[in-house]
From TrEMBL:
Keywords: Membrane, Transmembrane, Transmembrane helix
SUPFAM superfamilies: Acid phosphatase/Vanadium-dependent haloperoxidase
GO molecular function, one term: undecaprenyl-diphosphatase activity
Protein name stated in the entry: Undecaprenyl-diphosphatase
Species in which this protein is naturally found: Brevibacillus gelatini
Ranges for domain Phosphatidic acid phosphatase type 2/haloperoxidase: 58-166
């Protein structure tokens, strides 16, 4: 069995669960399509805590995503496959999507970039974030828009990017200078009653 056959077989094992347990389809649809909004809200809330460490963490997460997305685009030029629903018959397709190169998974890159960064800064809470990233990756297979290899590649690219960014970005003086400038500007525009406390 070659690599593509293994990839298709693994896809069928996961995607066919949607036919076997259709009651779970709505949950996986929501995870696949809408958790990105919950992630955006959580990132904003981390920033609004006004904790310096949280803000460095958010900066690292955004830098990780930028790096991983760039590497993902390069990977996409080296390998091409369309979405499973465009290449295979009898796919449990729950999401309508334009046909293009699905390698690697952009959703997986996004979630593993942020969730891995959160884990590096907050090990206990980070476990829950990593579980969320895994669930999102699996959901993209469940709804029929990605192969397991698309998801695994996206996860590995993001994990590697997060590790590099975590080691480099917090050490850069320019990052701390820009954050200090931002916080000075923030203090200047915040109401007086909020200047002396976090919220």
């Amino acid at each position: 069995m070659d690599a593509m056959q293994i990839n298709v077989h693994a896809f069928r094992l996961i995607n066919d669960l949607g036919k076997e347990y259709p009651a779970l389809n709505p949950a996986f649809y929501v995870i696949a399509e809408y958790t990105v909004y919950a992630l955006a809200v959580c990132v904003l809330l981390y920033w609004m805590t006004r904790s310096y460490q949280n803000r460095v963490m958010v900066v690292c997460a955004m830098a990780t995503f930028a790096l991983a997305e760039g590497l993902g685009k390069i990977a996409g030029t080296l390998h091409y496959n369309q979405q499973p629903f465009a290449e295979l018959a009898n796919v449990n397709q729950l999401v309508q999507k334009a046909v293009d190169n699905s390698f690697p998974s952009d959703h997986t890159i996004l979630f593993f970039s942020f969730c891995m960064s959160f884990w590096l800064f907050k090990r206990k809470a980070g476990i829950l974030w990593m579980l969320l990233a895994v669930c999102v990756g699996l959901s993209r297979i469940w709804v029929g828009v990605h192969y397991p290899a698309d998801v695994i590649a996206g996860a590995l690219i993001s994990i590697g990017s997060a590790a590099i960014v975590f080691l480099v970005v917090p050490q850069l003086s320019v990052v701390h200078s820009l954050l200090s400038l931002y916080e000075k500007a923030e203090r200047a525009v915040l109401p007086a009653r909020l200047r002396s406390k976090d919220f």
